[in-house]
Design goal:
36% of the residues lie in helices and 28% in strands. It contains eight helices and ten strands. The protein is globular. The chain binds adenosine-5'-triphosphate and magnesium ion. Adenosine-5'-triphosphate is lined by residues 11, 13, 18, 20, 38, 40-46.
Length: 243
């Protein structure tokens, strides 16, 4: 389980203080597929980065399976972070490395030589045939598949997805939804998806957090909510309910 307890994070930009997250309290169950929505700048990426402790909270606490990252030493933090994969809108592949080499990167960093694992992950994301190609020759959807294979190579218990489909066309978005659902099914991972595309959230998540200017507006179940496709309506409605 992931638990945020009154977590706040500020940043300074030109002497102006920005509250990226403001006393956010919520829990995400183990193996849940959990969404995070909100306007640009509402703190979504910061929220993800607090889970794997790429950011540390100014106040409040983040627990992953009962462990407070802030209390671990660097080595323990690294070990815990290795159990969390992350994928990004812009894929973040290395252009001078082949598909196979990109997937090998996190293993190599740990001095692990596991060609079978790489092959297996590339098979899973249906990219084995392009193992020796370079990212520049791939479509956006294919690049994201490779990025996912790279994240999966480490056997993550938690997969953090920051706008995973936002750079993709409709067809690739659909395939990505299928792939993420398959990952959930196959690897029983906890998956957290930040997206402004509510159809993606709706297709995959049980619940979603709605952030507004760093504040948690609501955590809501999705599947039964007919209005969820209409973000404006939904958002307005949630605001209305919460006064
Ligand atoms: N490293 C940083 N230094 C300074 N300000 C930051 C930093 N990271 C985030 N911020 C600020 O904190 C706020 C929240 O940023 P965050 O990236 O979490 O938002 P977001 O919801 O992911 O936005 P987007 O949808 O545009 O990706 C923004 O105002 C942003 O400018
Ligand atoms: Mg962001």
């Amino acid at each position: 389980m992931i638990a945020f307890e009154k977590v706040s994070k500020k940043f300074k930009q030109k002497n102006v203080e920005i509250r990226a997250l403001n006393e956010v309290t919520l829990t995400i169950d183990t193996q849940e597929v959990f969404g995070v929505v909100g306007e640009s700048g509402s703190g979504k990426s910061t929220f993800l980065r607090l889970i794997n402790h790429l950011e540390s909270p100014d106040s409040g606490e983040v627990f992953v399976d009962g462990v407070n990252f802030s209390l671990l030493n660097t080595k323990e933090q690294r070990k815990k972070r290795q159990k969390m994969g992350m994928i990004f809108q812009q894929f973040n592949l290395l252009g001078n490395k082949t598909v196979k080499e990109n997937v090998d990167l996190p293993l190599k960093l740990q001095r692990r030589n596991e060609p079978d694992k790489i092959e297996q992950m590339l098979q899973f994301v249906k990219m084995a045939e392009k193992a020796d190609q370079y990212p520049s020759s791939l479509s956006g959807g294919e690049k994201q598949r490779v990025a996912i294979a790279r994240a999966l190579a480490m056997g993550p218990e938690i997969l953090l997805c920051d706008e995973p489909t936002s750079a993709l066309d409709d067809q690739h978005t659909y395939e990505m939804i299928q792939l993420l659902a398959e990952i959930h099914h196959t690897f029983a991972a906890t998956i957290i998806i930040v997206s402004h595309e509510l159809e993606v959230i709706k297709a995959l998540c049980n619940r979603t957090a709605i952030l507004e200017k760093g504040k948690l507006l609501a955590v809501t179940s999705i599947k039964n909510d007919e209005n969820f496709t209409h973000y404006e309506n939904y958002y307005e409605r949630v605001k209305e309910i919460l006064g």
